[in-house]
Amino acid sequence: MRVSFEEMKSEFKRILIKKGFSEERAEVSAQLFTETSCDGVYSHGYVRFPRVIEYIDKGLIDVEAVPSKVEGIGAFEKWDGNIGMGNLNAKFCMERAIELAKTNVIGCVALKNTNHWMRGGSYGWQAADAGCIGICWTNTFTNMPAWGAKDSRIGNNPLILSVPREGGNHVVVDLAMAQFSYGKIEVTKLNKEQLPIPGGYDSKGNITTDPEEIEKTGRVLPIGYWKGSGLSILLDLIATVLSGGNSVFKIGKIDGSSEYQLSQIFIAIDAERVAGNEFLKSAVNEVLNDIKSSERVDENKEIFYPGERTLNTRERNLEQGIPVDEDVWKKIKNM
Q: Does the keyword Oxidoreductase apply (predicted)?
């Protein structure tokens, strides 16, 4: 089943207004949810939307809250998200980092006490659209074991990096510190599929591609094994120290099952001002053209740069409609 961009956005906006959002804030949040779905990150778009509504109903998301500035030192600022809507808070903070970068070349905003930002890549695309290099990450609930452990005490703490490119064909990587995000695992299970490569352990301690087994155990594999585990811990510590907010450890103690009051970092660097448009354009194209001219393992499988498949999916879904699971979409329509 496929749904047009405008129909999906309209449904999201309708529900958000019903839940108490102003029309303006509902419009922006609905746009972000729909863009995420249109770009193929269904797990953090329409599939995630019902859970967000549950958080609103539980009082874990304040529909009227907006970020408030705590302090600023030069090109660095601390903000409090006041447990507001995660994607609205994140968009605001990346916009503020961009504003700081346009004045100071670089801008950094540390945000505490916020909610799940949905697709972190949205804010990398946002920075690139403004001609900036974007770097942002978030900590999470305790949802991944440290390397060598069985129980979850660290987060899969997604990290996003982006570089602007002409025509909006930006280079963007959006990766969780787990081999697969829980959203991806959920969607794969929903589609009754297996993961393309092992993503965690089953209940017998064996490595597996079965998303249902991985959900049961919660033992997801970190990317690069011990390297992903170490990177997760450092991202959490940096976000905690700079924002003055909660660490993964404290988030895990707040509520046994909910993921909120998170800490996030948003960095923007004015690439156009630092490098100049001509050098920026030639340097990026030179690297990407070289990568795409690599000798292929399979001649029938193209080599993509980070973000390219997102652009292809976006174009296809805008033309054909966004594919949805009928049961999930029916649930949203009935809200």
A: yes
